[in-house]
Design brief:
alpha+beta, Glutamine Phosphoribosylpyrophosphate, subunit 1, domain 1, Alpha-Beta Plaits
Length: 302
């Protein structure tokens, strides 16, 4: 079944970074009945004084992976400004002025290392289990930013592990990630197309193609809104997805509008979710809500 959420603060330039992590955890906890196999978030607009934030994992007992990671990054001229690692999950902040694709490939090619995200001001954290477990393990509630998206997963077509958990990063494009509720019927043909173009996929999950599609279209010169509009003509299936970039979020619903989405908006904040109960966990006052219909999309920028 799965559930998606998103939140964006409009006035952070004046008020400072917001408690986006805390909001996302509250919303995800209220949607746990939609899936407890895995949970994940993207938080954008986080404070970062280096060029890139890299979130990664080291699987198994590969004791040499951290050392190889450091050596690999140094070998391409990148400089690690911050490094943290615990319980198989790591975060590094890197100064690197060359092609981000080379940085991504260098890290991903290290045996036992999986890259969850690379961003200029955003980071993905995802894990098996529910939202409470995610917060306890990774202290999501302490992360501040300007916007974010999240997902609770009930696995239907791919295995239960961190790799197949949402959000999906658009490898190797910085800051673009997607959460998705639904199924794409033209996934395999789209994947072959983008592989022929040279794109690399980290999983066999159909949701990953949405992030890569949007990132490629934005890279070609489209705005986020234009890329989402185009996705409605290209993607087949039943879907509601949310996308996060370095400066905003957006959503799209398919032509059947089978997957639910509800939105509440005030002068300072927008929240979107699969169910109203998630919105009520962060909006204390009674305000109007609206439900997007078939082939609708919208974006908000910070």
């Amino acid at each position: 079944m799965c559930g998606v959420i998103g939140v964006i603060y409009k006035n952070t330039e004046a008020t400072g970074l917001a408690s986006v992590g805390s909001d996302l955890i509250k919303m995800l906890e209220s949607l746990e009945h939609r899936g407890r196999d895995s949970t994940g978030i993207t938080i954008g607009g986080v404070e970062n004084k280096s060029d890139y934030i890299v979130r990664f994992r080291i699987e198994g007992q590969n004791s040499n992976a951290l050392e190889m990671l450091s050596k690999g990054i140094s070998s391409i001229g990148a400089v690690i400004e911050y490094s943290g690692f615990a319980n198989g999950f790591g975060k590094i902040c890197v100064n690197y002025e060359a092609d981000v694709g080379k940085l991504a490939n260098t890290i991903a090619d290290i045996d036992g290392v999986e890259v969850d995200s690379i961003g200029t001001n955003s980071e993905i954290v995802k894990d098996v289990g529910d939202a409470t477990q995610l917060n306890n393990r990774h202290l999501i509630g302490e992360i501040k930013g300007t916007h974010g998206i999240g997902h609770v997963r009930m696995a239907t077509e791919s295995k239960i592990d961190v790799n197949h958990s949402h959000p999906f990063w658009a490898y190797p494009f910085p800051d673009i990630s997607v959460v998705h509720n639904g199924q794409l019927t033209n996934y395999h043909s789209l994947r072959r197309k983008y592989q022929d173009m040279g794109h690399k996929f980290q999983t066999g999950n159909d949701s990953e193609i949405i992030s890569v599609f949007l990132a490629e279209r934005i890279e070609s010169g489209l705005s986020l809104d234009e890329a989402i509009q185009e996705s409605l003509e290209v993607l087949d299936g039943t879907f509601t997805y949310l996308v996060s970039t370095n400066d905003g979020i957006g959503y799209a619903k398919d032509s059947w509008s089978a997957k639910p989405l509800v939105i509440m908006e005030t002068t300072d904040r927008v929240a979107v979710a699969s169910e109203e109960t998630a919105l009520l966990s962060v909006f204390q006052d009674e305000i109007d809500r609206f439900e997007p219909q078939e082939k609708e999309c919208m974006t908000w920028l910070v």
